[in-house]
Amino acid sequence: MKNEINGKTKIIGVIGKNIENSLSPLIHNQIILKYSLNFCYLPFQIAETDLGKAIQGIKALNIRGVNITFPYKEKVVKFLDEVEESAQRIGAVNTIVHSKGLLTGYNTDVIGFKKSLQEDGKLAIKGEKAVILGAGGAARAVVYALLEEGIEGICIFNRTPEKAEKIKRTLSPFFPKSRISVFSLEEKRLKDKIKKAHLLVNTTSLGMPPRVDNTPLPDEKLFHPNLLVYDLIYHPARTLFLRQAERAGAKIINGLPMLVYQGIESFYLWTGLKPEGEEVLEMIRQIE
Ligand code: ATR
After folding, report:
1. Which of 39, 95, 190, 213 sits a CA distance of 20 to 30 A from 83?
2. Does 73 qualify as catalytic in the annotation?
3. Is 118's C-beta closer than 6 angstroms to any atom of ligand 1?
């Protein structure tokens, strides 16, 4: 194992707004070390007003590619030369590849979410119902993944219901067999919809530092043992949302497996190398 930076080192990284707690640099640099690749993965903390300049900078600095994280997954699309078809439908990009002078956007969150369900929970969701909290870039990928797997119904609850409505409008034409309903996060029907659901996913940022006492579902009584409760947040490893779900007897998953699996897919797009997900997950869990 060697880890030396020289004149031939290729740069990859992550662009986001608050990435001090991101585990992506650790994950990618551990993979680079394990396979002795001449790559280096760096964090780029960028203000929203600099996003366009930063994306152009990928070309100027000959960076091989980047991940895009909260809250830029949708905002970044307009700065790219090409967007792969599913990322285009989703309207959100979490990976950029710089090749032959062009920047191409991909969405590896979809496969990351599916693989995390396969390994940690269950992906047999055909005919089941899901409640999704939030309607940002991450929610779009989760909804798309569930629709591709043939889920029967999805209820999206968001503080700004118009954003959930937009997801419904853009994605439902591609999946006419699945039913998408949208509501405000304040809506009383949340209780009833969670009661009937098999899967409950938090895609909002509520529970992230510094407000770790925050949760998108303050009423603990809404959780039940037949739910698989998924929080896309991985820091802290157990949000208040997940702790409450666990107390209610629900099975829980945090965002680490999805982060690892989406990261592996992005890594493959940049390097042509695809490490084993389980192995990387184990490596990161031991370090953490
Ligand atoms: P990401 O790309 O990670 O999905 P995003 O697109 O900024 O990030 O989405 C963040 C999600 O968290 C949105 O659903 C947002 O709700 P709005 O669409 O109403 O903005 C949700 N969110 C963030 N802060 C929130 C808060 N204080 N209360 C409720 N929802 C919140």
Report:
1. 39
2. yes
3. no
Q: Quote the distance between the C-alpha of residue 58 and its chain's center.
A: 22
Catalytic residue chosen out of the listed positions 2, 34, 73, 196: 73
Nearest to residue 109, comparing CAs of 148, 64, 145?
145
Please tell me the distance between residue 103's alpha carbon and the centre of ligand 1 in angstroms. Answer: 27
Q: What's the CA-to-centroid distance between 2 and ligand 1, angstroms?
A: 41
Whole-structure pTM value: 0.94
The two structure tokens encoding residue 53: 């300049």
Which distant-in-sequence residues (6+ apart) come within 8 Å of 173 by Cβ?
Answer: none
Residue 157 structure tokens = 């609850």
108-132 per-position pLDDT tens digit: 999 999 999 987 666 678 788 999 9
Q: Could you read off the pLDDT of 229-286 as tens digits, one per residue? A: 999 999 999 999 999 999 999 999 999 999 999 999 999 999 999 999 999 999 998 9
Going from the C-alpha of 10 to that of each of 33, 51, 53, 61, 108, the distances in angstroms are 14, 21, 20, 10, 21
User: Where are the strands (E) in the chain, listed by range?
Assistant: 10-16, 39-45, 65-68, 82-83, 95-99, 102-106, 129-133, 153-158, 179-184, 199-202, 228-231, 251-253
Smallest CA separation from ligand 1 atom 9, residue: 136
